[in-house]
Amino acid sequence: MGRRRPPALGQHFLHDPAIAERIVDALSPEGRSVLEIGPGKGILTRLLADRAERLTAVEIDRRLAEDLRHDPHLANVSIIEGDILSRPLHQWQDPRPDGQFLLIGNLPYQITSPLLFACLDNREFIDRAVLMMQREVAARLSAREGSRTYGAISVLAALFASTEIALTVGKGAFKPPPRVESAVVRLTMLERPLGGVGEPGGLSHERVKKVVKAAFSQRRKMLRNSLKGGLARLDPEEIAEGAAAAGIDLDRRAETLSPEEFIELARALPDPDGV
Fold first, then answer.
1. Is the pTM of this model over 0.85?
2. What is the pLDDT of residue 6?
3. Average of pLDDT values for 60-64?
4. Cα(48)–Cα(45) distance, rounded to whole angstroms?
5. CA 99, CA 224: separation in Å to the nearest integer?
6. For the CA atoms of 39, 124, 273, 266, what is the dihedral angle to 10 degrees?
């Protein structure tokens, strides 16, 4: 007997109505404009259509998008066929006076990271996001310093949002079942970025990102070694002086630093690339 072919585009469709209700409850879409990523067969879309003020759903699969357009229950939903990453998230929405919307979606595992960064890049337009992803990624995203799962994505998300795992989802909630467990993460955007990062006159987001990624590039090594390798344009003495000014011991490892400490370190270090 031959191997069963995987679903088109690697899709695993949620089919558990109780889980779908809990996901939509976590978003609280009442009276809001909502953007849904990858509606698939529409289990979340139908619930959202009844509760949101306005709903736009972006589906990359032409057949699925066409099926949703012919669903009489979704007559008031804007179904768009397209690649969600092909433009900034806020450009999928019709203009609104306040420009704000909520984001929801069952993220394809292979593009989870770029979608997460797209969400953070559009933070001025997004109040809240409820996203289903691989459980491992959810754990990293919501981790705090000192945790084994704490990493660069944990720090970079904490600059702009508070994150929490709203619920975990077993393999049996999908057809066909995926190989991994899933979790739903709720991101609530901060009114003001941590430390004013990315604000006019504040520390550049890109500068913080370079320092964070350098620090975690060799996570088992002490900061003095990981920063030396990851910020090759800086002299070791410059790194030492900057760390001292920020009150950071270079014998520590990256996973012990809080997001606030990373901000202070990035502020104190010389700019590695003129960012």
1. yes
2. 36
3. 96
4. 5
5. 43
6. -110
Residue 273: inside a domain, yes or no? no
Report the alpha-carbon distance of residue 179 to residue 42 in Å, rounded.
22
Torsion of CA 187, 192, 194, 198, to 10 degrees: 100
Residue 246 belongs to domain with CATH number: 1.10.8.100
Domain hosting 93: range is 8-191
At 137-164, the pLDDT tens digits run 999 999 999 999 999 999 999 999 999 9
Q: Which residues of 141-151 are buried (b: 16+ CB within 10 A; e: fewer)?
A: bbbebeeebbb
Torsion of CA 235, 240, 241, 242, to 10 degrees: 90
Residues 187 and 65 in one domain: yes
Give me the phi and psi of 48, to 5 degrees please. Answer: -65, -35
pLDDT of residue 3: 36
Q: Considering its fold, how many domains does the chain have in total?
A: 2
| Residues 23 and 110 occupy one common structural domain | yes
* Dist. CA 89–CA 71, nearest whole Å: 25
